[in-house]
Amino acid sequence: MKLKAGETFPSITVKDLAGNNVNLNGIEADHCDWKLVVVYRGQHCPMCTRYLNILAQYRDALLNNGVDMIAVSADSKEQLESHLAQLDINFPIAYGLTLEQMQSLGLYISEPRSEKETDHNFAEPGLFVINEKGTIQVIDISNNPFVRPEVDKLVSGLQWIRNPENDYPIRGMYRY
Predict the structure, then answer these.
(1) Which of 43, 100, 151, 157 has its CA 20 to 30 A from that of 167?
(2) Which residues are the signal sequence here (predicted)?
């Protein structure tokens, strides 16, 4: 099952670092009405660490454009806490994405190559932009850590999409 652009983003609850329940499609920032949800592989992935740190550099630009954000993985709380030493982020991050939740998001799921990598199945990268209606405006799902949207292009693209003068619809809606 793969989610499609224009569909309602599913209600998925995970935990934040304080152990609070967080709904991935819930808006936390006061002046935001869109949300960027970034699914990353976990602490074992150096490319994910790099990507999250790059995203942090664009946090203000996203907020100024009305886009809140969160990152999530299937890691445990302990794994996320350990990962924080390598992260320089300024946005919410969550843990505990379950196999069923990964499947409901249509993500590719991998088994660890060894215990050295990690101790659980994990989602390959996924990125979802949810608009003010709770609908998936932008979706990007990869089956490996090497293919992800360039953050600067993503941010400038969202600025363009959100500009009312451009009247830009959700793309990829043709159903055959």
Answers:
(1) 151
(2) none
pLDDT tens track for 25-42: 887 777 899 999 999 999
* Domain 13-19+29-162, CATH number (from 3.40.30.10, 3.40.50.300, 1.20.1050.10, 3.30.450.40): 3.40.30.10
Q: What is the DSSP letter of 81?
A: H
Q: How far apart are CA 50 and CA 52, in angstroms?
A: 6
Report the candidate in 75, 5, 16, 65 with the shortest Cα–Cα distance to residue 40. 75
pLDDT in tens, 67-84: 999 999 999 999 999 999
Count of Cβ atoms closer than 10 Å to residue 26 Cβ: 14
Residue 112 exposed, middle or buried by CB count within 10 Å (0-12, 13-18, 19+): middle
Contact between 129 and 111 (Cβ < 8 Å): no
Q: What does pTM read for this prediction?
A: 0.94
